[in-house]
Specification:
Blueprint lengths: L2 H6 L5 E10 L11 E2 L1 E14 L5 E5 L6 E3 L8 H15 L7 E7 L9 H17 L5 H15 L7 H8 L4 E6 L5 E5 L4 E7 L7 H19 L18 H20 L5 H17 L6 H11 L4 E6 L7 E7 L3 H14 L5 E4 L5
Parallel strand pairs: 4-6
Antiparallel strand pairs: 1-3, 2-7, 3-6, 4-5, 7-8, 9-11, 9-12, 10-11
Helix pairs in contact: 2-3, 2-4, 3-4, 3-5, 4-5, 6-7, 7-8, 9-10
The protein binds alpha-D-galactopyranose.
Alpha-D-galactopyranose binds next to helix 5.
């Protein structure tokens, strides 16, 4: 029996799912209109729905306690429910007539580590709604609605990367996305390589405030430079006149955009890995979104045989690291780095590839 049937006692009218993502390169560039290079991960969020007799909405998320009841004119208090509620409100704003619904969510996307569990929830919710109600939103519109839901209803002033990745990426090739035009294309990973993701076990406690602050600093730097966004700057020499802090923030964004464009044309895993290492240094020194535990885990990864490069991934301030490895070194390198990290007291674990059940 499905989770939906166990909770609501009947089969759902529609079911949909969406993956989490890991970003290989292009961190903190999306809200600067820049370039990103995420790839979907195997873990997914599944949403099932059915029209209810009414009057309101009932939402059950596995592992999140009791079923939550709410009406569209009064948002639910539970944090996870605000993502679903936000998606419903966005669908209504785009013309959907919403009947009362029973909604069930289950997910194996790790939460709070920078693998976009919230985007996976938003995209899966909107896909399920599209199917149930015969709506005509396309995959890009779904990503855009998910982003708006997150900004307006979950209070994170995020860019478009995570929702575009969850809606459009796949697990075998990276998605090169220009976040200004939304032009995109798939890019093969360097031959023989694969993606490894490790959790540092450190909560992303400063993520929301630090994230919004970095975003404001970038906007201020763009204003002082007289450009619409930092995307328009391609030469770091142009940053010379900025105050030191803003110059370093902007230097990260300008150099990171260049690294993404270089990575998609590079010929070897070694070259790609060097760009990841440089990205981590830039995030640590110029953008200041790393923490000592992430630096340690990244250094352990970089020291493993078969690892071409490693960096923190996602917003930073805690969470996960990503590495590009030789495919046949994946398991060994991941376990070796986690073991060493734990010996020094950390609570690390392998997130990708996911352990078999
Ligand atoms: C979070 C945001 C994204 C992006 C990254 C940093 O994941 O949701 O939009 O800004 O941080 O690259």
């Amino acid at each position: 029996m499905s989770g939906f049937e166990q909770v609501f006692g009947a089969a759902p009218g529609a079911q949909a799912d969406a993956p989490g993502r890991v970003n290989l390169l292009g961190e903190h560039t999306d809200y600067n209109d820049g370039f990103v290079l995420p790839i979907a991960i195997a873990q997914r969020t599944r949403v099932a729905m059915r029209r209810a007799a009414g009057p309101g909405f009932a939402l059950h998320a596995q592992g999140q306690g009791d079923t939550v009841s709410f009406e569209l004119d009064s948002p639910p208090a539970q944090h996870f429910a605000s993502y679903v509620y936000g998606c419903l409100m966005l669908a209504r704003r785009h013309g959907a007539q919403l009947p009362p619904l029973q909604i069930h969510v289950e997910s194996d996307v790790p939460m709070g580590v920078g693998l976009s569990s919230s985007a996976a929830l938003e995209v899966a919710t909107l896909r399920c709604l599209r199917q149930l109600l015969g709506l005509t939103f396309d995959d890009v519109q779904i990503a855009q609605m998910g982003q708006r839901a997150e900004i307006e209803f979950a209070g994170v002033n995020c860019g478009i990367m995570d929702q575009m990745a969850s809606s459009l990426a796949d697990t075998t090739r990276a998605l090169l996305l220009d976040t200004r035009s939304l032009e995109r294309r798939f890019v093969d990973l360097p031959a023989g390589s694969a993606v490894l993701v490790l959790d540092s076990g450190m909560p992303r406690s400063l993520a929301a405030s630090g994230y919004n602050q970095r975003r404001a600093e970038c906007e201020e730097a763009a204003r002082l430079l007289g450009v619409r966004s930092l995307r328009e700057v391609t030469d770091v020499a142009a940053l010379r006149g900025l105050p030191d802090l803003l110059r370093r923030r902007a230097r990260h964004v300008v150099s990171e955009n260049a690294r993404v464009l270089q990575a998609v044309n590079c010929s070897s895993a070694g070259e790609f890995g060097q760009l990841m290492n440089a990205s981590h240094a830039s995030l640590r020194d110029d953008y200041e979104v790393s923490i000592p535990e992430l630096d340690r885990l990244v250094a352990l990864l970089q020291a493993q045989e078969g690892v071409h490069g490693a960096r923190l991934t996602g917003a930073g301030f805690g969470g996960a690291c990503v590495a590009l490895c030789d495919a046949d070194a994946l398991q060994r390198a991941g376990l070796a780095a986690v073991t060493k990290y734990r010996e020094a007291g950390g609570r690390g674990r392998v997130l990708v590839p996911p352990l078999p059940d």
